[in-house]
Structure formats: structure tokens, C-alpha cells
Automatic annotation (TrEMBL):
<feature type="domain" description="RagB/SusD">
    <location>
        <begin position="286"/>
        <end position="571"/>
    </location>
</feature>
<dbReference type="GO" id="GO:0009279">
    <property type="term" value="C:cell outer membrane"/>
</dbReference>
<dbReference type="InterPro" id="IPR011990">
    <property type="entry name" value="TPR-like_helical_dom_sf"/>
</dbReference>
<keyword id="KW-0998">Cell outer membrane</keyword>
<comment type="similarity">
    <text>Belongs to the SusD family.</text>
</comment>
<dbReference type="InterPro" id="IPR033985">
    <property type="entry name" value="SusD-like_N"/>
</dbReference>
<dbReference type="Pfam" id="PF07980">
    <property type="entry name" value="SusD_RagB"/>
</dbReference>
<keyword id="KW-0472">Membrane</keyword>
<feature type="domain" description="SusD-like N-terminal">
    <location>
        <begin position="81"/>
        <end position="210"/>
    </location>
</feature>
<keyword id="KW-0732">Signal</keyword>
<dbReference type="Pfam" id="PF14322">
    <property type="entry name" value="SusD-like_3"/>
</dbReference>
<protein>
    <submittedName>
        <fullName>RagB/SusD family nutrient uptake outer membrane protein</fullName>
    </submittedName>
</protein>
<dbReference type="InterPro" id="IPR012944">
    <property type="entry name" value="SusD_RagB_dom"/>
</dbReference>
Length: 572
């Protein structure tokens, strides 16, 4: 915690609003000033709260990386360092939490001094926003690390060096208190476009339900890596029921949430699923909460193209790459079922061969909105982001006259998150990163309801709406009539709907499915579309391998500074 002490004692605020504002956090460079002389007016408070939103990018803005750690499943991340990721989340979460705690202290002081009821209510709303953000960070931390140090204030240096980990159950209760407070003071939505992107009552209900669902899964499936954590069938049922209640609240017609373009698939060449992840549609009613970005030239931009794109488009790195395991999940628009797995082979004419462009015809439209395979085209864009060129095809193994895929290895590239419009450089993108969308709520609701009561017409209808945007036929209700088979349908939709949105990693953990995915103890190989070897995945796994997947290690440098900070059992 030592590295955070200085930033804890100083409030980082965003002072000067830029002339080109896309989102509420689109402010230029930060300035450090004394908190005691800054938090005086409601305008000061707004800027201070915006600084807390800004800090969220540190942990949640790179959420997509978690789809690839510590081993690639549906997405491969080249040049990955999983150890640095585990430390990153610990440090970045506490940096944000400390900023939130400082803001809460100042907001409460301002509330006690408020002259008008209008100002008092506004300051309470700001506190609700900040407590919502604090809750998000702590929910992430107990998922990653189990017991964590809980702080609801700015610690002294002595406290920072000595505070022990708080049991996960207590941290959960504190998180729930933050969500409940947010629900009590936040609006359903915001009238002003300047406030779009702020936390709402709906978002608080959604994330509270998500934590309750995760807690139910942990109680059902176990978390033996967490000290003193006991499975409990009765507690699992209790939390499934609580989650259902909060998801039902989000789904009320009064909030007017709906799938983008009502779930219509759109045209295959430009499916609506692809359009959802563009600047013009980031504020649609499907998006419940997101990390805000804006550009250009104000230091508030995203770098998705750098990570997901290719050299021909804004000089991207193509570090994030879809795998053949993901490709095999996309179902047929004709049958609604899986097709035969692709055959990894160099022959571009081989029937069902991975190098053959015809292999991918007639699949879920979301595949076209997510992946680029042999023969698929993208428009080139110059590195400065100002000039769009011709549409150029991709051909793995050949860059001459084709898209330059850098040194990516799987044979697939991303289309999702890769800009195809001009005006923004590689590191100044304006696209928000979605943390909660309506399909997430629907699928979590389906999961919880199915667990307690089994499939129903209501649940089939919700899943069919999500599948509809991929132009897939409705589920065969006879085939998916049991709890087990319907849960399989939920898993399938979560896998393809939220590719590279940071959901897969957490799903596999709460369902305790890592051993099944990676075929314990034999493991599996990751290979390219040309059948070239990329890496072994959990081959000859030891008894300690998968427990380490289910819980991160406490950073050792933090434990050196604080002797009361214990280590998680699988990492001893």
C-alpha cells in the first residue's frame, strides 16, 4: 500500500473542461491541489466525483484482458504477463478506492454544511455515485482475491502498513450497503446529455444482483481457496432469490431498457451487433453502465484499436486474437445448432477447413461482428486516424496485398472494438467500454431462475431474443427442457455475446469449469488455422494449478510492506 500513500492524501481533480466533450469524463490533463481548499461548491464536488469516475479506467478499462488470463480459452493475448496482471488489479483497485473514500469524506462534510435542500440532494446523489463505484471495485477484489483489506476511509501511513484482510462475508455486506445507498439516492436516468454515463439506480440494481448471483454460485459450487468459506445449499438458494429480485427490478418496463434496434440482426455485412460497439450507439438503451472515453487530444481516449486491431488499421498490434475454440461456438443460422469443428489445415479448399473462407458461411451474425477470417475485409486507416483507405482482405500467412496482421498467431483477427471511421488516432479513441448490458441482466436472470425453478416460457423468450440478433432460430424447447440443458444454453449465449468484454473469466470461475474447459489433467494445445503450434495449455497440470486459477495471489511486495497481510493458500 505504500505506493498509494501520496495519492491518498491528495485529491486528483479534473479542472478545465475541453471544448470537444463526448462523455462526462472528457476533461483534459489533471492537476493536484489540496482537498481542504478545493471541495467548497457543488461545481467543485462534480469535478471531484468525475475524478473518481476517471480512476475507474485503471482497473475496468482493461477488463478485456481477463478473458485471456492465465490461459487463453476463446481469446488469446500475445505477449501476456499474467503475474503483472494480478498485481495490477490489486494496486489499481486500491488507488481508485482511496480516491473514492476521500471524495465521500468531503461530500459528507459538504452535506452537513449545505444551505439549500437542492444542494443537499445533489451532494447525496454524488455520494451515491461514488459509493456505487467503490462497490464495483470491492466486488471485483473479493472475486479475484477472496478476503481483502476493507477501507472506508483514507488510511494513515501506520494503518496502511498494518491493516489485515477483512473476511469476504463482511466485505460483501459493506458492498451491499453501498449499492443500497446508491439505489436510494440515484435517479432512474439523467435528463441532461452532459450527465449521460453516470451511475443510475438501474445500474446499482443490476450490479447488486450480479454480486448476489455470484455469491449464490460460490455457495453452491464452493470456494475452497478462500479461508473459512463454507458451501451452503440453503444460502445459495437465498442469494439466487435475492438476485432474481434485483434483476426483475432492472427489467421493469418503466426503465424502458431494450436490446439495440430491438434485437434485430441487421445486414450480414454490417450486423447490428457490430454497430452496437460504435461511438454513435454507445448511449443506446441496452447499455446500463460503461467506462467513459473521449477524444481526440484531451488525454481521455481508449486504445482498443492498438490491442484488437491490425497494422493496416491505425497501426494496431493485434495482440488480442480470437481462437478456433471461439469459432467453434458460433452456431448455424439454419439449424440453430453447432456445426462440425473447423479442421485446422493449410488447404484453403478443404471442406470445413480453417483456412477455407467458405467454412464460415451461414453462422451466427455475431461472428461476423466479432471476427475477421480468411477473405474477410476491413478498411485501412492511416496511423494518424485521419484517412480511410480501401477495403483490404485478410489472408493468414500472406501479408502481400492483404491486411498486415503483425505477428499474431491464431489465424483470426478481431473486428469487434476495431474502429472503421476516421477522426481519432490509435490511442485517442472515443468508444466507451461496456460493463453492464441488458443481455447480461437477462442471462443472469435466466441462470438464477433456472437454478431455482427450471426452464419456463419467460426464460426461453429472453434467450431467443438474444439469439435473434445473431439471426439464430429459437431454441428447441423440448431439447432444452431440463435445468442442465437449459443451463447449457445460458453458458453458450454468455460465451458468444460477451466476447472480450471480461465476462468469460468470471463465469468459468464461479461455475468451477476451468478443469473441464482445459481437460484436467491432460490439458490441451492451442494451434493456428494453419495447424501451427502456439502453446500448451495446462498440460500435465498439478494439483495446485487450478486452485490458482480460481484465486489470485496477494502481491508479494505488498506483503513485504505489511506483515499482517496473509497469502492465499494455493500460493503459499
Amino acid at each position: 500500500m505504500k505506493r498509494h500513500i501520496n495519492s491518498i492524501l491528495l485529491l486528483v481533480v479534473l479542472l478545465v473542461q475541453a471544448s470537444c466533450i463526448n462523455n462526462l469524463l472528457d476533461y483534459p490533463a489533471t492537476t493536484k491541489i489540496s482537498a481542504d481548499t478545493f471541495w467548497e461548491t457543488t461545481e467543485d464536488a462534480e469535478k471531484g466525483v468525475n475524478a473518481v469516475y476517471n480512476a475507474m479506467r485503471n482497473a475496468f478499462g482493461l477488463f478485456y484482458r481477463l478473458d485471456c488470463y492465465p490461459n487463453a480459452d476463446l481469446v488469446y493475448f500475445q505477449n501476456a504477463n499474467s503475474q503483472s496482471i494480478t498485481s495490477d488489479y490489486w494496486n489499481k483497485c486500491y488507488a481508485s478506492i482511496n480516491r473514492a473514500n476521500n471524495a465521500i469524506v468531503q461530500l459528507r462534510r459538504m452535506q452537513s454544511e449545505a444551505v439549500t435542500e437542492k444542494d443537499l440532494n445533489l451532494l447525496k446523489r454524488y455520494e451515491g455515485e461514488v459509493r456505487f463505484i467503490r462497490a464495483l471495485h470491492y466486488a471485483l477484489m473479493i472475486d479475484l482475491y477472496g478476503d481483502v483489506q476493507y477501507l472506508d476511509h483514507v488510511p494513515t501511513q501506520e494503518e496502511a502498513y498494518s491493516i489485515a484482510r477483512t473476511p469476504i462475508t463482511q466485505v460483501r455486506d459493506f458492498i451491499m450497503e453501498d449499492y443500497d445507498y446508491a439505489i436510494s439516492v440515484l435517479p432512474d436516468s439523467y435528463e441532461s446529455s452532459d450527465d449521460q454515463g453516470r451511475a443510475t439506480k438501474v445500474a446499482a440494481y443490476a450490479f447488486k444482483g450480479k454480486l448476489e448471483l455470484f455469491w449464490a454460485c460460490w455457495k453452491k459450487n464452493g470456494r475452497p481457496e478462500v479461508d473459512n468459506f463454507q458451501q451452503s445449499e440453503s444460502e445459495a438458494k437465498e442469494y439466487y432469490e435475492k438476485a432474481i429480485g434485483n434483476f426483475k427490478e432492472v427489467m421493469k418496463p418503466a426503465y424502458n431498457l431494450q436490446l439495440f434496434k430491438d434485437g434485430a440482426p441487421g445486414e450480414y455485412v454490417n450486423p447490428n451487433y457490430l454497430q452496437l460497439f460504435t461511438l454513435e450507439n454507445e448511449k443506446c438503451s441496452e447499455v446500463i453502465f460503461s467506462i467513459q472515453y473521449g477524444g481526440p487530444n484531451i488525454g481521455q481516449g481508449e486504445e482498443f484499436v492498438k490491442i484488437f486491431g491490425n497494422r493496416s488499421v491505425l497501426n494496431g498490434w493485434a495482440n488480442m486474437q480470437p481462437t478456433n475454440y471461439l469459432v467453434n461456438l458460433y452456431q448455424s443460422t439454419k439449424t440453430g445448432d453447432y456445426v462440425e469443428p473447423v479442421v485446422l489445415n493449410k488447404n484453403q479448399n478443404l471442406t470445413n477447413g480453417s483456412a477455407n473462407p467458405k467454412t464460415y458461411e451461414g453462422r451466427d451474425y455475431r461472428m461476423r461482428g466479432t471476427i475477421v477470417w480468411n477473405g474477410q475485409k476491413m478498411r485501412t486507416i492511416t496511423p494518424d486516424g485521419m484517412t480511410i483507405g480501401d477495403s483490404v482482405p485478410f489472408m493468414f500467412g500472406n501479408k502481400n496485398g492483404y491486411l498486415d496482421y503483425n505477428d499474431s498467431r491464431t489465424g483470426y483477427m478481431f473486428r469487434k472494438f476495431v474502429r472503421q471511421y476516421a477522426g481519432y488516432s490509435r490511442s485517442n479513441g472515443p468508444q466507451d467500454f461496456y460493463l453492464m448490458r441488458l443481455p447480461d441482466v437477462w442471462l443472469m436472470y435466466c441462470e438464477a431462475m433456472n437454478e431455482l425453478y427450471g426452464p419456463s416460457d419467460e426464460l426461453f423468450t429472453l434467450i431467443d431474443k438474444i439469439r435473434g440478433r445473431g439471426k439464430l432460430p429459437a431454441l428447441n424447447r423440448e431439447k432444452f427442457k431440463t435445468k442442465e440443458t437449459f443451463f447449457g444454453a445460458v453458458k453458450q449465449e454468455r460465451a458468444v455475446e460477451f466476447v472480450a468484454e471480461g465476462q468469460r473469466f468470471f463465469d468459468l470461475r464461479r461455475w468451477r469449469l476451468a478443469e473441464k474447459v482445459w481437460d484436467y489433467p491432460n490439458g490441451r494445445e492451442l494451434r493456428s488455422t494453419l495447424n501451427d503450434f502456439i502453446q500448451d495449455q495446462y498440460k500435465n497440470a498439478t494439483d495446485r494449478t487450478f486452485p490458482r486459477y480460481y484465486i489470485y495471489n496477494i502481491p508479494e511486495d505488498e506483503r513485504v510492506l505489511n506483515p499482517n497481510l496473509t497469502q492465499n493458500k494455493p500460493w503459499l
